[in-house]
Amino acid sequence: VFALEPPAGQPAPGRSSGGLPKMASVGDFSVLSSSIPATKVELSVSCRNLLDRDTFSKSDPICVLYTQAIGNKEWREFGRTEVIDNTLNPDFVRKFIMDYFFEERENLRFDFYDVDSKSPNLSKHDFLGQMFCTLGEIVGSQGSRLEKSIVGIPGKKCGTVIVTAEELGCCRDSVLMQFCANKLDKKDFFGKSDPFLVFLRSNEDGSFTICHKTEVVKNTLNPVWQAFKISVRALCNGDYDRTIKVEVYDWDRDGSHDFIGEFTTSYRELSRGQSQFNVYEVINPKKKGKKKKYVNSGTVTLLSFLIETEVSFLDYIKGGTQINFTVAIDFTASNGNPSQPTSLHYMNPYQLNAYGMALKAVGEIIQDYDSDKMFPALGFGARLPPDGRVSHEFALNGNPQNPYCHGIDGVMEAYYRSLKSVQLYGPTNFAPVINHVARYAASVKDGSQYFVLLIITDGVISDMAQTKESIVNASKLPMSIIIVGVGPAEFDAMEELDGDVVRISSRGKFAERDIVQFVPFRDYIDRSGNHVLSMARLAKDVLAEIPEQFLSYMRVRGIKPLPAPPPYTPPIHVLQTQI
Q1: Coiled-coil ranges per the record (predicted)?
Q2: 142 and 565 in contact (C-beta within 8 Å)?
Q3: Residue 131 has what DSSP assignment?
């Protein structure tokens, strides 16, 4: 639909009546993002010096945003701004609200048109150019403000576009709530009931998802439950008017809990706090249907409601924290001779090997958060020219004083170059590259930088004790380690380093926080040959823990995000007219 204003008193399209953005509908559901979005960001678009396509006045611009499906790369229209009459420097009022995941690459395309008639068909209007970027690029720019040239009309300067990302507040709030109940139905033959509450949020399709269970209060019909904390996202997906259903049960040891009754509410109702509005009748529909005189099965009362705002990963990124990305590649002989197709380092002229694929999948996402796009790339376990000495931390570009490569493409180039010059050898020692990054991380502990080390290996590790010690020491530093295991080996040692099951320790000292994430590459090889989707899944799984690991470091150290640089203020402009 074209961006026509809705009639007065009616909600704008894509918004629920509460004035809050509607969540993505089932049709937009993608295989990858079935988790609750990490957060929502609001994109604001402005242009400067657009092309003038009108003879007697200036262009009447509109901006159309497209997103790209991960699998088939198809561009789909996401939304349109309003049209602003007669200007080459529009500041569009209508925003785009998007789900943001750190661990996914979301490609965006902004198209600009000069609107000449009321037709919603874009081909009927003059094309003014376009801009391509990723959502990560916008968020990762200084102050989350990206300025880029508009391209697409050969031989013409099409002006620039400025896109600013703002995190939506409702996504990072948590609520602390406490409930009690009175005169609940007695369900137990001996003694009273043992009640507990179950909270469920409603989904777009009318189904319900459980989001919280209280503890059981034994032997009472008037329980007071302990206060509990839940994120607003989990409670209602940030939609204040979405139905929240609360079920009341009587706990039974054998798990066949008896249903006492239920009631519905919403975040907006609960946010009124303790009041006559927040006393709910617990209704058992079966009983209500059978008994004429049925009133209710008791009442539940909200005792307190407190909103707490959490600082988020994006607060730090916006405040200027840089993520430094280092790559370390396993050049040990167990990988096989690079000139043989069976080798994990096989230099296939037609497609990337497993090392190349893993490197690109993870690197392309992280690079959006690193302003200089210069990445140190190291190798370990090879004999180096000219004298054949074995090294466990050598620069892939051959320059130990400056191991930095420009962009992920630069890292790939250096990797292929090294394969031609070094001899695969051994043993497989991880500790030297971990200590290499730890030395840098130890020098900036003020929260202005965070380090991510990606180790790609065939998993046969020789220095387990030293590696554990390095990880335990590194867990006090602003760094995370991602290990991707390639090839068919048993990765038990890697699973142990991951520390998800048992926190890693060395000489009786435990790691202060979990900083290692391991995934086996073979779990992501797509039998259908669709590497794009399988690599997106790999990146998602290895990067999903980083924002939480990052926040755990900042929390423990008491580091608050810096304020974002002052926002850009556009000049005052002419009144806007809608078409």
Answers
A1: none
A2: yes
A3: E
| Cα distance between residue 30 and residue 363, in whole Å | 22
How far is the C-alpha of 551 from the C-alpha of 258, rounded, in Å?
41
- Classified as helix, coil or strand, 92 is coil
CA–CA distances in Å: residue 210 to residues 176, 207, 235, 245, 479:
18, 10, 9, 9, 34
Q: List the beta bridge partners of residue 111.
A: 64, 130
Contacts of 57 (CB under 8 A, 6+ apart): 86
Could you tell me if 60 and 88 are in contact, meaning their C-beta atoms sit under 8 angstroms apart?
no
Tell which residue, 372, 382, 320, 390, has the closest CA to residue 564. 320
Other CB atoms within 10 A of residue 215 CB: 12
Q: What letter would DSSP give residue 12?
A: P
**What amino acid is encoded at 409 in this protein?**
D
Contact 163, 189 (CB under 8 A): no
The answer to whether the bond into 427 is cis (omega within 30° of 0) is yes
- Select the more confidently predicted residue: 208 or 66: 66
Higher-pLDDT residue of 92 and 526 is: 92
- 327: Cβ contacts below 8 Å, ≥ 6 apart: 359, 363, 375, 376, 377, 378, 396, 411, 453, 454, 456
Structure tokens at 135: 């959502």
Q: Do 214 and 228 touch, CB atoms closer than 8 A?
A: yes
Sheet bearing 389-391, strands edge to edge? 389-391, 382-384, 423-424
Strand partners, 175: 230, 307
Question: C-alpha distances in angstroms, 468 versus 121, 419, 432?
Answer: 61, 28, 12
Query: Among residues 460, 456, 455, which one has the least CA distance to residue 333?
Result: 460
Q: Which of 22, 28, 23, 33 is nearest to 105 (CA)?
A: 33
* End-to-end Cα spacing for the chain: 12
Q: What is the Cα–Cα distance from 364 to 361, expressed in whole angstroms?
A: 6
> 464-474 vs 431-443: helix axis angle to the nearest 10?
10
* High-pLDDT (> 90) share of the chain, %: 64
Quick check: 279 pLDDT over 90? yes
Task: Name the maximum alpha-carbon separation found in the chain.
Answer: 95
Domains present along the chain, CATH in parentheses:
39-170 (2.60.40.150), 173-309 (2.60.40.150), 321-557 (3.40.50.410)
- Identify the burial level of 372 via C-beta atoms within 10 angstroms of its C-beta, where 0-12 means exposed, 13-18 middle and 19 or more buried: exposed
How far, in Å, CA of 485 to CA of 344, rounded?
Answer: 11
Q: Answer whether 151's CB lies under 8 Å from 129's CB.
A: yes
Rounded to two decimals, what is the model's pTM? 0.70
Q: What is the model's pLDDT at position 573? A: 52
The SS3 of residue 559 is: coil
